[in-house]
Amino acid sequence: MKPGLKPGVRAEVTFTVTEAMLAGFDDAVVHPVLSTVSMIYHMEKAGRMIILPYLEPDEEGAGYEVCVRHLRPAVVGETVVVEATATAVDERFVVADVRARVGERVIGEGTFTQVLFRKETLARKIGALKQALKRTTGGA
Q1: Would you give the distance in Å from CA 108 to the centre of its chain?
Q2: Which end of the chain has fewer CB atoms within 10 angstroms, the N or the C?
Q3: Res 140: pLDDT
Q4: pTM higher than 0.85 for the full model?
Q5: What residues sit in the active site (predicted)?
Q6: So which residues are the catalytic ones?
Q7: Which numeric CATH code is attached to 9-138?
């Protein structure tokens, strides 16, 4: 990892709630408000933006743990700002506090942890999983 990633490093994502982001299942809207999964997606995105400038070409990061509370609704057309702030950094993990808000109204908050690894390690693990799948499905 490149130097400089430490607690206090921040990133921000801004988006407008759309119909596609509403809470629903199987193409049916359950509640006409921002879904929890859409909020978490943007929290993860903000957390990823923290690490990107510090990754070496052979490094990558992936979501490891999300612990979030969805506190209040946001409706179509509202602008949501998601802030991520690194709170713990070591050679393997980056933990960030994440907060989503509409203006001063906090709609969600929690933590997002990423694990850091070498790209070749992930490629090797994915390859092993694909081989195991081929063996169990007869090569399909």
Answers
A1: 14
A2: C
A3: 60
A4: yes
A5: 36, 44, 70
A6: 36, 44, 70
A7: 3.10.129.10
